[in-house]
Amino acid sequence: MDEIYGHLVTLTGFTDEDNTVLKKHKDQTQSWGDEIVQDFYDTLFGYSSTSEVFRKGERPDREETLRNWYFEVTSGELPKDFWNHQWFVGLVHIKRKVSNPYMFGMMSRVQQLFLGKCLQEFPLDQVEEIFGAFKRLTDVIAGLIAEGYFINYVEAMVHVGGLNVELVDRMMHIEIENMLEKHSK
Ligand code: HEM
Prior knowledge:
By secondary structure, this protein is an all-alpha fold. It has helices at 2-12, 16-24, 26-30, 33-45, 48-51, 59-75, 82-95, 100-121, 124-160, 165-184. It has one domain (2-184): Globins (Globin-like), CATH 1.10.490.10.
């Protein structure tokens, strides 16, 4: 997890300064929480593929989870275990069949809502700084959830099959070569 987090931080350019910016404006950005949560679940419940993921009566709990997440992200003071927890979300999503296209689609929507709000409520010269901070942070999160999903999925498969990781790696390499060859024909 740490190595993957490191790659994402370096490549997105996320820094502590982003948390400082978010902390400075949290009163304003957190006042958008209810609207963002409402839009998020209206979208998911309004689309048959994603509404199937949820159990009957689950919406209030899910709204609470997302509200807490949004408040943590915009607080500028991430809890100590925050990054490990984002990795763990990938594992929870596997269990509940929340695929990465669903997660990425909704992360994009949250980012667009946040940008729209910034443009409405902040002077234009502050928008790039505030939205940029939120975008970098939430992109690192999306990367961790997606990779947490992928790595945990593969690890579970390797364990279930009683397989040897290095052997699977070598066999995968050969299979990928075959697939690439087929594709180029
Ligand atoms: C912006 C993208 C998303 C973020 C940041 C996010 C975040 C989270 C978090 C923090 C949890 C709680 C993990 C835990 O501590 O137990 C969670 C669980 C869950 N999420 Fe997501 N999620 C996202 C997208 C989605 C989407 C698109 C769906 C549905 C299509 C979804 C459905 C669920 C469900 C069903 C749970 C499991 C709750 C449980 O069984 O305890 N999430 N997610």
